[in-house]
Write a structure and sequence with these properties.
Strand content: 25-35%
Number of strands: 12
Shape: globular
Structural class: alpha/beta
Radius of gyration: 15 Å
Length: 202
């Protein structure tokens, strides 16, 4: 597609390849982002799952944390899954030493809330804005959202816990849609990125 938005995946740690495949399937031009100059060339960014403390420290080490914060504050669309959700939270319950977030969603997140690696599970999740059948959510050491502020919209819950949130151009899920072959959540994000671009940039 000639108007396909360019969407990066923060490629410091985590399931980067799966996100690149899902974004391409949703009609975006997908590319890995590790450095500030690569960040400057994308219309939107995915923050993948992985280990949130490690991603935070590597983002600072590679010099992308501050420009990423600035772009998110400036309205660049961003989507975080699992650890990426933690990165987009304004506050974390019991953060690790030295752990920083990008922020962008007025929510408080609890790390590893659904349990450890061996307690990972899949569940059907009804996500607001996604038509058709429920999304199959893969939860791996997943966080949940303890609470949201007035500006954040809850898109999905699982067993009474918030697992998908949107605030403006920021989207976050506790689960990993990139691992299922169902690209509807990525398509929703691609639509957000496309809608955010000015006519002059098309």
């Amino acid at each position: 597609m000639t108007d396909a938005p360019v969407i990066g995946v923060l490629a410091l740690q985590g399931d980067v390849r799966e996100h690149l495949i899902a974004l391409a399937a949703a009609d975006a031009v997908a590319r890995p982002v590790r450095r500030p100059e690569e960040l400057a060339e994308v219309d939107g960014l995915v923050l993948p799952g992985g280990e949130s403390t490690t991603i935070s420290k590597l983002a600072i080490l590679f010099g992308v944390m501050e420009p990423l914060r600035a772009r998110v504050q400036d309205g660049m669309p961003v989507y975080g899954t699992c650890a990426g959700m933690i990165m987009l939270a304004d506050k974390i319950v019991d953060p690790r030493s030295g752990q920083e977030t990008v922020g962008g969603i007025d929510m408080i997140v609890r790390r590893n809330a659904f349990g450890r690696q061996n307690e990972s599970f899949e569940a059907a999740v009804d996500v607001k804005g996604i038509e058709g059948d429920p999304v199959e959510g893969v939860f791996i050491r997943a966080p949940w959202v303890e609470s949201v502020g007035a500006g954040a919209e809850v898109l999905a819950e699982h067993e009474g816990h918030i697992v998908a949130v949107r605030q403006g151009n920021a989207l976050a899920t506790s689960f990993h849609p990139e691992l299922t072959g169902d690209h509807r959540v990525h398509a929703l994000f691609v639509d957000m990125v496309r809608a955010n671009r000015t006519p002059e940039s098309l």
